[in-house]
Each structure stands twice: as C-alpha cells, then as structure tokens.
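Journal club side-thread
Mid-discussion, someone asked how the predicted structure for our own chain would compare to the paper's figures. Pasting it here so we can look after the session.
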Amino acid sequence: LAFVAAMLARVRDASLAFVAVDMRGSFTPAAPLLPPLAAAAFVVGLVDVARRWREPVAQLLALWIASVVAIGALSEFTPAGQRYPMAVPAAALVAALGASWLVRAASRLGSRAGVVMAALVLVALAAEGAVQAERYFVRSPPWVGARRDVNGEIARAGATALRLNASHLSPGDLASRAAQARAAAPDLPIVVD
C-alpha cells in the first residue's frame, strides 16, 4: 500500500511538471515545462483532447503525454527534467488546441469576440515568449555553464567560500558543479545549500 501511494505521488508530480511542479536534474533553473500562460492553454487543451477522445489525433496526443508521464514517474528524481524534451512537441500541440478552443468558444459569441480573443491569445503568448527569452538569454544563459555560476558565487561570497545551490540539481550534476568549483578556486571551501 505504501508503494502504491508513493507511485501515485510520483505520477502526480510527473503530470504536474508540465504546468506547476519544478523539474529537477539538468533542467536549470528549476521550473515547470510550460510557462504560466502556455500552461493554462495546455490545461484547456487537455480538456479538449479528453472531449475528442475518439479522434485519432486526440488519442495520439493523450498517449504521447501519458507515456512521458509514465517515464517521468519511473525516474529516480521525479520529475526529472531530462525526461521531458520528448514531450515538448505534444505539449505545444495540446496548448495550441487549448488556445484554438478558446478562440472558437469566443467566436460563438460573434465574429468580433473571436477576433478579440485571437488577438488576446497572440499578445499574451508573445508577451510570455518575450519574458521567457529574457529569462533564458539574459538572466540565466545556459551556455556559460557552471564556471559563470562559480565565479558569480566567488564574487558574492567575498572570496571566503563557494556556495552551490543544490535544490534543483541531481547528485551527478552537483558533483560536476563541485568539481568545477574546486578547479576554479581550489583554496576556497564549498558550501552546499
């Protein structure tokens, strides 16, 4: 019974990694797969997929998402970020179905309402894309890697210690970052938070 409860908790976390639960491991900084507005469209899209469950496209998308959830639930550090790249196309399609459903629903109120909803969806997603691009390219560029993080930590710590934030790192990633930190500043102690 404890195993079943633990497995259900892993399935819950693996499912919510699309919209709410921060992924772990190589997904840095820790965040859900989808940003907030795309996540909302994804949830609406899941409802639309469930509503169309007899259609082959809906079945394929449901199977795709379910297989990623199963793989994520069976991972060591659920939800492990490295398990989710294969879900990106399906998540984007489901979110697009959700956004399309919102526009279709508004269109039933009149053509002007449909146009307004389409414009709102486009503006909201473009704004969210701009925020995500700034986050990715400006605030935490991944191509700089751990050496930038370590050097930043050295500067902030006043060269007395290296602080490594382990909240979003797997043990392997933490060991790799610690080795890079040791190479960057062999005389400083490493503090893991």
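Post-session note: The first helix runs from residue 2 to 16.
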